[in-house]
Design a protein that fits this description.
Strand content: under 5%
Number of helices: 3
Order of helices and strands: HHH
Length: 78
C-alpha cells in the first residue's frame, strides 16, 4: 500500500517543484503581453494589411464590373 502511495506522490511532488512554477510564470507573462495591446510594429503591419485588403476589394470590384460588361453570364458558369 505504501508503495502505491509513493508512486502517486512522487510525480505530484516533481510536478509541483518543476512544472507548476514554470507554468505559472509563462501563463502570467502571456497575460501581461496580451493586456499591453499591439506594439507599433504590429500596428503598422495590421494597417498595411488593411490597406492591401482595401485595394484588393477595389480591384475585385473593377474586375467584376469588366466581366459583367463583357460576359454577363460569367457568374452562372462557375
Amino acid at each position: 500500500m505504501e508503495d502505491v502511495i509513493g508512486i502517486i506522490i512522487a510525480p505530484i511532488i516533481i510536478f509541483m517543484i518543476f512544472v507548476a512554477p514554470i507554468w505559472l510564470i509563462m501563463h502570467y507573462r502571456s497575460k501581461k503581453q496580451m493586456s499591453q495591446g499591439l506594439t507599433d510594429d504590429e500596428y503598422g503591419t495590421l494597417q498595411e494589411l488593411a490597406d492591401r485588403a482595401e485595394k484588393m476589394a477595389e480591384r475585385i470590384h473593377t474586375l467584376e464590373s469588366i466581366l459583367d460588361a463583357e460576359a454577363p453570364e460569367w457568374r452562372n458558369k462557375v
